[in-house]
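User: I'm writing a tutorial on reading structure tokens. Could you give me a worked example: one chain, its sequence, then its tokens, then a sentence or two explaining what the tokens reveal?
Assistant: Sure. Here is the example chain.
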Amino acid sequence: MSSSRPSVPPGPSRRDAALRGVRELLPATPGIFAWGLVTGVAMVKSGLGVDYALALSLLAYAGSAQLAALPLIATAAPLWLIFLTALVVNLRFIVYSAVVRPGFAHLHWNRRLWLGFIVGDVMFVRFTSLMRDEPDYPHKVAYYTGGAIANWIIWQVASIIGIVAAGQIPTAWGLELAGTLALVALLAPLCLQVPVLGGAVAAVIVSILGHSLPLRLGLLLGMVVGMAFAMLLERARPAASEAS
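And here are its predicted structure tokens:
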């Protein structure tokens, strides 16, 4: 008489993982939509034509960099400053890439390039939480891909609506505040880490002190100082733990 082994329930499929990524992104939809709408409206009201604004939204996919660069474009700031501002704002994606690298290191470079293009702040937070809380989850890439594509679609729909309907959307709606508050609520948990909190505080202080600088250089200076201070705090933590 053969003894039967207890059946092991099957794990999630790649499809299940992708759908989970979509589900866990959906609560952030209002914030993503508001931010995309703000960016679309801002591009047109800053003087970009609808065709250029649509191309920028589809190809760049970097709302914070677009919003940082648009006032400089509108005031005919030097090209080097526009480029540098957008570059500095997007430097955070280098940090994102370093953090999520363990989940993608086994993939071919062209697939990593595609996954890097669709990375966003919201899905970065969701994916790093999955890596921390469920390190053995079998389909991390599928989870990320599902959520990141959903993020991209929501953003593009909102941005295109903002571009096309920019003339009918009044600035009195306060969409900038709505989008900003949504992002703050999402990113605030990251500030539980000392380096992130220290960098954010340093960036805010320097940006306020440099508010009167020409060409919005105070904002650029604040971002640079904030990132540098956060990196210093991150490097100091291992030394402090070894000393104790």
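What the tokens reveal: The two ends are 61 Å apart (CA to CA). Residues 14-188 form one domain.
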